[in-house]
Structures
1.
Amino acid sequence: MPTAGNSRGTGLHRFAIRVFTVVLAVLVYWLLEFIVKDIRAIPGPDFAAIEQRYLDPQQVARLADYDQELARLARTIENQLQKQRVIGDSSRNLQETISQLRELQRLSLEKSLALSEADQAALSNSLNLFLENQRKYQELSQLQAETLDRQQQRVQERDSLAGELDRQRESARKEFQSQLDRHRFWLACLQLGILLPLLALAAILVVRLRGSIYFPLILACGTATLVEVALVMHEYFPKRYFKYVLVGGLLVAIGALLVHFIRTIAFPKAASLRRQYREAYERFLCPVCDYPIRSGPRRFLFWTRRTVHKVQMPAESGTQEELYVCPDCGTTLFEECPSCHKVRYSRLPHCQHCGSEKPLA
Ligand SMILES: [Zn+2]
Ligand SMILES: [Zn+2]
C-alpha cells in the first residue's frame, strides 16, 4: 500500500517546496547574521583610555602650553608685520612729501627766494616724523627678530617633546593592538560558540533525517549555518589558518560522502535494494547474480542485461507461474504465497495475486 512518502506531489508543489527551501535557507542565514553582527558590536578596547595611561600627563600639559604659546607668538608676529607695513606706508608718504618740499626749496633757492615759513615748518616736521618712523621701524624689526628667535626655539622644544610623546604613544599603540587581538579572539569564540553547536546539530539532523519528508528543511538550515560559520572563520582567522580549516572541512565532507556511497553499494538500503530487484525481474535476470531466469516460455533461451529485449520469444505464450530458484546462486525467485497459495515474486514486497505484503530480506 502506498504511503505518504511515496507521493511526489504535483510539479507546482515540488517547485514551491524548492523555492521555500531556498527562502528558508536565506532567512536562517539572515537570523544568524543578525546574531553575529550583534556580537561583533560589543565594544572593544578604547585607544584614548590606553593612551592616557601611557602618556606622561605633565608632558602632555607642557605640549599644550607650547602649542598655546606658539599660537600666541604667531599672532604677535602677524601683528608686528602689520604695524611695520603701516609704518612703512607712512614713511613712503613722508618721503614723497619731503622730496616735494625739497624740490620746492630748490626752486626757491634758484630764484634766491627763501622758503615760506609754513613750508619750512612742514619740511622740518616731516623730517622729524620720518626719523621717528624710521626709529619705530627699527625697533619693530628688532622686536620681530627677537620674537622669531623665540618662536624657533619653542618649535624646537615642542618638536622634541612631541617626539618623546610619540615614543610613549607607540607603546600605547602596541598595547591597544594586543588588547584588540584578544578582543577579536573572544568575539570569534563567542560567535563560533553559538554557530558550531548549531552546525553540529544540523549535521546530526541531516544524517538522521536523510530519508525524512522534512529533509529539505533541515538541509536549508544546515547549509545556512555552514555558510555563516565559513564567513565568521574567514573574518577572524588569519588567511593561512583559514585555508587549512577550509581544506580540512572539505576533506571531512568529501570523505563522508565517499564513505556514504561505498556503504550504500556494500549495504544497500531497502529502497535501492527494491529498485535493484525490480529492474532485475523486468529483465528476467536473477537480482543477486544476474543469471537469466529461464522458466516458462524462456526456458531454452539465453540473454544478458543488454540483449534481453532483442531475444526472439517463441510462439508459446504463458506467464511465469512456477516456483523457481536461481540455478546459479540458489536464491529463491518465485515462491508460493502464504495467503493465496499462488506463485509470487520472492524478492518483491507484494504478491501480484492477492497483494499481501512481506518484508524484504
Ligand atoms: Zn542467482
Ligand atoms: Zn498471494
Note: Confidence is low (pLDDT under 50) at residues 1-6.
2.
Amino acid sequence: MVSVAKNGATPPVRHICVVGGGSAGWMTALMLSATAYGEGIRVTVLESPQVGIIGVGEGTTHTFRQFFDLLGIEESEWMPACNATYKSGISFEGWSTRPGCERYFHPFASILDNMTMQPFLDNVHARLSGADVHAHPDRFFVTATLAREGQAPRAQANFPFDVWYGYHFDATLLGQYLGRVAVQRGIRHLQRHVQEVLLDERGAIGGLRLDDGGTLEADLYVDCTGFASLLIGQALKTPFVPFGENLFNDAAIALPTPLEGKIESQTTSTALKYGWAWKIPLRQRYGNGYVYSSAHCSADQAETELRRHLGLLDADVPARHLKMRVGRVAKVWNRNCVAVGLSQSFIEPLEATALMYVQRTASMVTEVLEGGDLGDAAISLFNDAMRTRIEDTRDYIVAHYKTNSRTDTDYWIANAENMKLSPSLQGVLMTWMSRQPLAPALRAGRFGQGWPIMSWYALLAGMGVVPGTEESPLAGAATARHRMAAVDAFVSRSAMNFPEHRTLLADIPPRLGDKSLQTYLW
Ligand SMILES: Cc1cc2nc3c(=O)[nH]c(=O)nc-3n(C[C@H](O)[C@H](O)[C@H](O)COP(=O)(O)OP(=O)(O)OC[C@H]3O[C@@H](n4cnc5c(N)ncnc54)[C@H](O)[C@@H]3O)c2cc1C
C-alpha cells in the first residue's frame, strides 16, 4: 500500500534511519518525524550500547527555543528534567588587553534592543571617527545587566517585550529526555551497534549490519555518529575539510564544580594561555572546561592550568580529556546519507553553535523532503547552503581570535598574526579598520549571512578594536547623538521587569501560546 502524507503528497522516502542517539540523533529524529508527511515517513534511531555520547555541549544559541516550540513542549516540562537554566548571552573575559575592553558581553538581539541598538551603532561609528564617546557594548543591552545580576531573560507577564535567550543544560540528561519524548511519539529506538555499513552497487548505503546479526535497511540514512563519522566519512569516504589553519584549538578538558550563590544567566568564556575556559551554570553545578591547542601545550599543562583557574589544584575531581575534529565534511548530503551533528561539522564551542547547526540541518532536510525533489540539483543546492552557513560561522569565530591583543603566549600572538582569513572576513575587518560603517554591508549580505549586525559590533567594539588615532577619513562626519544617561536609564528601568533567575527556575510559567510577545532579530 502506498502511504500518503497529511498534505496528500507521497513522501520521497518512507523509512529514515538515524544512526546515533546523542543530542544530534534525537533532535534530528524528532524534527524529521514532524514533517508534513506525518506517519508517511517512519523514523528509526539506532544507538550503540558500546559507544557513549560525547556528553558535553551544554550551551545553546537563541534558536534552541524554536526547537521546543516546534515540538510543542513547555519549558516547565523539559527544563527541570535537564537541569536547565536560561542564557542571556556570553561574557568574554580577558580576550582583549585594551583598556576598558578586558571584558564584554555578547547578547542575543531582540526587540527590546531596538531602543538602544541605534545609539550603540551611532556611538561606535563616532568612536571609529575619532570622537571620544562611549562605544563599549555592555551598557547598551538589557541582557548584559540581567546576566550579570543573576536575573532571568524572561520578562514578567505584564511586560510586553520578549527578549531572545538560549539555555544551558546537562547534555546527558537532554539526550535521555529527548529519547523518551521520541519513543512516546512513535519513533523506533533500537539499541544496536552498527558493525558494518553495506554499500550497494552504485556506491550508496544499502544497509547496516548490526551486532545481533540482522541487517537494517532504509531509504535515507542520517549519520549522527559523532566524530566517528561512521557513515558519511568512513563508509562513503566523503572528504573532510579541516579548519585547522583558521582555528587552532583541537582538544578540550571538561570538569564540573558545585554551584554556589546566584545563578548567572550567562556563559563565561575566559581566555587562558592556550585557549579559553568555559563556565556554564546549571541548576546544581557548573560545567567547566578548557578548549586549547595541543600544538601549543600538552594535555597535562592544560589540565593544570584549568585546575588553577578553577581553584581546584589540590581537589580530587576527575577531568575528562577530549579531542576535537574541527572542520566540515565536503558534502553534508552525500548519496543517500545526510550528516548531522559532530559527524558533519564542528567549529569549536566558542559561541555554542553546534546544536544550532543540528537544528538548521534537520530543518533544511525537512524542507528538501517536503519539496519532494531529491535530485542532484536539489541536493547540490542544499550542500552549497550548508557550506556557506558553516563557513560564515567559522569566520565569526575566527574574528574573536584574530582581534585578540594578548601577548603572553605564542598561541595568542600566532592567532592575532594569522592571515588565513576568508575573503568575507577580510572584508569585514578592512571595512572596520578603514572606519567605514559596517552595518550597511552586513545588511546587504556582502560579508555572508552568518551573524547579525549586533553580534559583529559587539565583538569588534567589545574587544576595543579601534584603528589608530591618526586623522580619520570620516573625521567630523559622525557625532555622538546619544547621551549615555538616557541609555542607562532605559536599560535599568527595563531590567526591573525581569525576575531573579533562581526564583523563576523554581516555578517556570507557561510560554507557548503567549501571543502578546513581540520578537525581532537584528
Ligand atoms: C568540548 C566541547 C564543548 C561543546 N560545547 C557545546 C556547546 O556549548 N553548545 C553546543 O551546541 N555544542 C557544543 N558541543 C558540541 C556538542 O557536544 C555536540 O554537537 C552534540 O553533543 C551532538 O553530538 P552528536 O550527537 O553529534 O555526537 P555524540 O554525542 O558523540 O553521539 C554519537 C552517537 O553515535 C552512536 N554511535 C557511534 N558509533 C556507533 C555505531 N557503530 N553503531 C551505532 N551507534 C553508534 C553513539 O552510541 C552515540 O549515541 C561541544 C563539543 C565539545 C567537544
Note: The pocket of flavin-adenine dinucleotide is lined by residues 19-25, 46-48, 51, 53-54, 56-60, 171, 193-194, 224-226, 228, 230, 252, 289, 291, 322, 324, 341-342, 349, 352, 354-355 (CB under 6 Å).
